Amino acid sequence: MSEKLFAGLTYEQTVRKYARTVGGVCLMRLKNYADSEDCFQNVFMKLLSKSPEFTDENHLKAWLIRVAVNECNSFLRKKRRVVSFEEAVREEISFNEDKNDISWALMKTPQKYRETLYLYYCEQYKVKEIAEILEISETAVKARLKRGREKLKAIYGGD
Amino acid sequence: MEEFNCNQLKNIEIPESWIENAINAAEKKKKAVLPPRFFRCAAGIAACVVLAAAITFSVLFGVGDNASPVLINTGSPSKPGALTAETSQNSTGESAGFASPPSAVQSGENQTAAALTDPAEKAGVNGDSSSAANRQSSNPVPDSTKAQAQKGGSADNTEEPREPYVSEKTEALTIPCADGASQPQNASTGEKKCYVKTIVSPELAEEDIFFCLEDINGNIAGNAGLFDSSRSAKKEVNKNGDIVLSYTVDYSGEEEGKIFSAVFYNSNGEVIKRSNPVPFYENLYFSFR
């Protein structure tokens, strides 16, 4: 039986190509490697089990990000109800303060700005596309980008 | 401090173990669980097998039920009365009984049973005009066809159903044509004019052609759809060399938009040509050779 293709890519190719995107979204939301990995694995398991049809790779990428966002939201809802004993020992992501990479500053911004900035600057999505992925209005995306940049600048500058 | 620039944001690196775990988990899942498509396919095959079996079963028993009356009807020489009755019925020229023997067989086992049990009664029924009623019960036909059958005409469906109207139209045609179509029209009735042009063969152009517009029920359109081409038609030759007969039809506004056919008769009242039905509007153009 031939292997299922996702927008012309095999499952392994899809994982390798979009691992950084999906992982980045999960890390931006959860700020935690362990939890992010769980969500990351769930996203690709869903891809395999649901086997949706994609028109092209952009469609595939948008679907993966949307599912990653949903997985993270679902995880956060569960987390509110169940408090784990491991919670205390879980490590948050830490970055070195590199002048060429301001990701460390991004991780210090509030979650809603962090996510929007990540999609805009790292994944190169347009405002309209971000609005569709996060299911918010374009105005809200623009506002988040503006305030996120201000906060990022403040963190970076030590304000 | 370096100048702040958001473009300095870079993709976050994720551990390679995440990717390996995702790929390995997929491999394990493939081995452990059959994809849902397999179950859909299996369910589909099972449904097909059950359906095929059910159809075979029903066909076998269904044919068995229908087969018995056929054997009784056609293969019982001990009942000559029934066969005689059928023959007498068909001796009048009405071929409905033989034209569709399967329908007669399928029409009802009661009819066949009645013929077998009481041949005299069957013969009596066939002796009067209620034979048409028998046919009606066994094989419903349109009223017009039944009327033809009662007149002794053939009920063959291949014949054009409008043909019987010819004689009536011929009678109707001759009367107004005697006065011609050039009678002064009453302007107060709001009559309109429709121009009909017809291409005819040179031979046909020499004949007297009667023309009328008929609706789907065979009614003549308006109050002036009847012409004697020898008197009212204008004969022209177009640039292609075709002979074109032009008619002017006066009609009431009520006819507009209704569906009519242009029908042409020769001097014997025979239909030469019937056009396709078209909505009746001004400047109609019927073309035929």
Brief descriptors of the model:
heterodimer, A: 159 residues, mainly alpha, globular, B: 289 residues, alpha+beta, 5-stranded antiparallel sheet, 3-stranded antiparallel sheet
Task: Give the radius of gyration of chain A.
Answer: 17 Å
Helix content of chain A: 55-70%
- Given as residue ranges, the uncertain stretches of chain A (5+ residues, pLDDT < 50) are none
Biggest chain contact? A-B, 37 and 23 residues
Which term fits the overall shape of chain A?
globular
Structural class by sheet pairing and helices of chain A: mainly alpha
Q: What separation lies between the terminal Cα atoms of chain A?
A: 60 Å
- Give a quick account of the main beta sheet of chain A: strands, pairing sense, barrel closure: none
Which series of helices and strands of chain B comes N to C?
HHHHHHHHHHEHEEHEEEEE
- Taking pLDDT < 50 over at least 5 consecutive residues as the criterion, the unreliable ranges of chain B are 64-188, 222-231
Q: Count up the helices of chain B.
A: 12
* Number of helical segments with 4 or more residues of chain A: 7
Classify the beta-strand content of chain B into a percent band.
5-15%
Number of strands of chain A: 0
Task: Please count the beta strands of chain B (DSSP E, at least 2 residues each).
Answer: 8
Main sheet attributes: strand count, strand direction, barrel closure of chain B: 5 strands, antiparallel
